[in-house]
Fold:
Amino acid sequence: MPGHTALPLSQHQQLSRRCALFALMAMSLSIGMGMLAWGPICLAPNSHLHAAHGIDVVLSLPMLLAGVCGWRVLGRSHWPAVMRTPWRWCFACLVLSAGLAVAHHLAPSDLGHLAEQTTAAGAFVMLTCGFLAERVDARFGSARAGAIALAVAGLAGLASWLSALGLGEPDLRPFLLLQLLPVLLIPAGVLGLPGSHTHRVDGLLVLGLCAAALGFDLGDGVIASFTAGAVSGHMLMHLCLACMVALWAYRAGTAASAVTAGDTGLSQTNTSLSTSG
Structure:
């Protein structure tokens, strides 16, 4: 069309990545401000009553086993290091979270719940880094990015613990914000960006399971009351996360060895946010 200049493909991709990252940051900030205005979100007074069930312990084991298998599979995967690193640490956090969940269900306490939520938040943040490393910028898969992400999760745990000193109950808002990050990748348009090693459907399934896990965890008490304590949202959360790990580990394990083109695409994203075209 006259007067209309099309952007080169590389510039268009860079702009799309920047827009998706900006949208993710804007939505995270908006939700964070909304939570700040809402006020503390604390544990329900009787939240530990339905935690001390043997079935909760049993249903924590699939997530633990899936995480261990996923860690090992990714170690042998043909994915590049910038993709393997965040996902391996995501699985490691889930393994630790599952182990802490077992301990929490055997001896329920606020401290046990905080420890479990902190490691789960670390897993969700690393999961977010994994998607961003593949589709936005490979630097999200670096060791430095992973260390920052895990530090943020640790600070969230510290903030929640400190809030308990003044409120009497830990404030769960820091965890909730971090656990929402993967879900926000969908409206931010990250899955609309080309993936070098995974398909959009894979991402939708994984993030859908993350959203279901978060929803079940938030509705823990409601589900437990509705089922007369036979099933809790926490149980269903563990099963969803186990399925998520199994799905992503399968995708990594079946990755083709010929990934030269994908590696080139990932390396090009290193400068996608730092160049102006």
